[in-house]
Every structure is written in C-alpha cells, then in structure tokens.
C-alpha cells in the first residue's frame, strides 16, 4: 500500500500553531483519534511512548512521529505544517515545522516500515521540503507527496545474470 493510497487533502493541516512538541503531538493525536474512532488518550500515549525511545525528528525541520496501535483498523497518515517551528529534540537542533504522522494497526505491522521509508525518501529532497513549506493548499501538498513518492524506475533494478 502506497502513501498516495492513504493520503488525501483531508489529511493535510496547514498553519498549525502548537507551542511546543507536546502540543504538536496532542494536535496530531486529536486529528488521528477522530479518524480512527479511538480515544485520543490512547493515541497520544502511543506517540509519547515512541518519543521516549528517541526523538522522531529527522532533521532539516522535519519530524515523523509514528506508532503502532493495537486497536486501529486502518493506517492513518497526516501532514502538518506549522506556522512557527517547535523544538522536537532533533539531532541537528533545527526546529520542526513539517510533521508527518504515521499510525499503523499492530495487526498489519509489515506495512509500517515501507510506508515510513516511502515518506523518508520523499522528504530527503531539499526541493520537496522547500515546496511543502511554500504550498498554499492541501491539494498542492498532496500533489507534491504523490510526485515525490513515485518510485524511481532505476532504483530497484536488479542486474540480469550472464
């Protein structure tokens, strides 16, 4: 399952204004809990537990908070762009202003790492980050992510034998 299959304009939050990392996680947990039909405290606790293991900040102003949820029936992917970056305990000490939330059902855990890898590939391009920061509408964000997550046909080519 591709991120493009899970991600729509309804999953984009532009101009979020949390005061800090805890506020951002709270905002994302609230949005995700509504979509999943789960109690917000359960979603927030899963995100906080993951952050205790280590920050999910990727650097360059990007965070990828994620968790598996036992009671989730389907994956959820959300994108939030903040009006002002917040400290997210990133190794590069850059404040986070772009966050992708990935929540995955424990029963389907095989899909979590491929989904996160797909997002990470999209976010490693500085042009994609610049465009995400400049996007004016949720439609632009979705289009940028769809373009950035199209597999590179040369990337997974297996050489033929002799």
Give an overview of the whole structure:
With 162 residues, the chain is of the alpha/beta class. The protein has one domain (3-147): Mannitol-specific EII, Chain A, CATH 3.40.930. Helix content is 41%, strand content 22%. The chain has six helices and six strands. It has helices at residues 3-6, 21-36, 40-53, 112-123, 126-134, 138-148, and strands spanning 12-16, 57-59, 62-63, 66-69, 76-86, 96-105. Strands 1, 2, 3, 4, 5 and 6 form a six-stranded mixed β-sheet that branches. β2 (57-59) and β3 form a beta hairpin. α2 (21-36) packs across α3 (40-53). Residues 153-162 have low confidence and may be disordered.
Protein traits:
162 residues; alpha/beta; Mannitol-specific EII, Chain A; six-stranded mixed β-sheet; 6 helices; globular; disordered C terminus
**SSE succession:** HEHHEEEEEHHH
CATH superfamily: Mannitol-specific EII, Chain A
Label the structural class: alpha/beta
CATH class: Alpha Beta
- Summarize the main sheet: 6 strands, mixed
User: Beta-strand percentage?
Assistant: 15-25%
**And the CATH topology?**
Mannitol-specific EII, Chain A
Q: Helix share of residues? A: 40-55%
Overall body shape = globular
Low confidence ranges: 153-162
Summarize this structure briefly.
The protein has 162 residues and is an alpha/beta fold. It contains 6 helices and 6 strands.
């Amino acid at each position: 399952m591709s991120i493009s299959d899970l991600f729509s304009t309804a999953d984009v939050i532009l101009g979020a204004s949390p005061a800090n990392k805890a506020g951002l996680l709270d905002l994302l947990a609230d949005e995700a809990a509504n979509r999943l039909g789960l109690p917000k405290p359960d979603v927030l606790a899963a995100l906080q537990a993951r952050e205790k293991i280590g920050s999910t900040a990727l650097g360059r102003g990007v965070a990828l908070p994620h968790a598996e949820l036992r009671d989730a029936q389907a994956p959820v992917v959300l994108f939030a762009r903040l009006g002002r970056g917040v400290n997210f305990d990133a190794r590069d000490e850059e404040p986070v202003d772009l966050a992708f939330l990935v929540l995955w059902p424990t029963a389907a855990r095989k899909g979590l790492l491929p989904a996160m890898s797909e997002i990470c590939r999209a976010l490693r391009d500085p042009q994609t980050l610049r465009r995400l920061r400049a996007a004016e509408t949720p439609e632009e964000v979705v289009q940028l992510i769809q373009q950035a997550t199209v597999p590179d046909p040369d990337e997974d080519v297996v050489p033929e034998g002799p």
